[in-house]
Amino acid sequence: MIRKKINILCVDDEQLILNALTALLRLRYNVITTTDAREAVEILKTTDVAVVISDQRMPEMLGSEFLKIAKEISPHTTRILLTGFSDLGAIISTVNESEVYRFLTKPWSNNEVLEIVRDAVEVSKALRENAVDIQPEKELFQDVVLNAEPTKNWEDSYIIYKSTVSSSEFDITQETPESVKVLIARNSEEVLQLLSKYPVKLIITYSPFSSGDDIELLKYLKRELPELLSIGLVRHTDYQDIITLINEAKLYRYVVMPSKPGQVAHFINSAIVMFHKFSQSPNLLKHQQVQEKTPIKESLLGLLGGMKRFFKFS
């Protein structure tokens, strides 16, 4: 019996790019291509697609806009953004609104594309098996705590806040419900010590600029504790840092400060709700897997202590 090939949708206004992706993927998958993002939307409405690969810079619709629509139409389709430029706003949008699984940069490595698509197909299967739809983020953030999930999601919820910013400038406790316990850490070592003592669900980092130490810490934690979610807050950022944080640390949300009113609170609520979904459906953790492209700093290795005892989903 011939097994039906899984559908992969590729969207790019450059036909040469589509031809290259088709040549690379067609032996393993049924590759559907289009140069029109609006046509791609219609394809998703009528076709079972496991993975969509979209270029960012397209004339009719940006890739970030298309992937946001794709998430709403087909939440079990894993989304990959193909980008060759540094549009920070679009990249951040794909993190927060379309929950992009991976970024691919041009020029790409064929082996890397095959590996990412293979993993993305497994993620799509896991999402479909668990029938969990991740709801789109709301356009407005006011009253987010009042509209939060049931109170049980907040019980015994610990978050770690690691920041080099004064509390008078940004008070994290103003963004969290009273039942959430905020633990303050000044450096990576203190983060790991707190993780060994408390059942933490979320880590939030805040630095004026993208911090190499924060990136290394989040990469390390995601490899060791895929259940742990992270939110990055910065004043100034770089597109390559965001790509690294998604591909190698699976950052949950990214915020350029100062934020919109209620935005950080909304993302915290969303993260804790997602943590509880992991406990109910461990297969969803496949979406949290990362690329182990670069080594972890030796200073972080061996400091886990007993923190893994709090994480038993996988």
From TrEMBL:
Lineage top rank: taxon: Bacteria
The protein's matches in InterPro entries, at most eight in alphabetical order, are given as: Bact_response_regulator, CheY-like_superfamily, Sig_transdc_resp-reg_receiver
The record's listing under PROSITE patterns reads: RESPONSE_REGULATORY (PS50110)
Q: Which Gene3D superfamilies would you find in this protein's record?
A: 3.40.50.2300
The modified positions for 4-aspartylphosphate read D55
User: Which residue intervals define the domain Response regulatory in the entry?
Assistant: 7-121
Q: What is the name attached to this protein's record?
A: Response regulator
> Which of UniProt's keywords are assigned here?
Phosphoprotein
Gene source species: Wohlfahrtiimonas larvae
A Pfam match is Response_reg
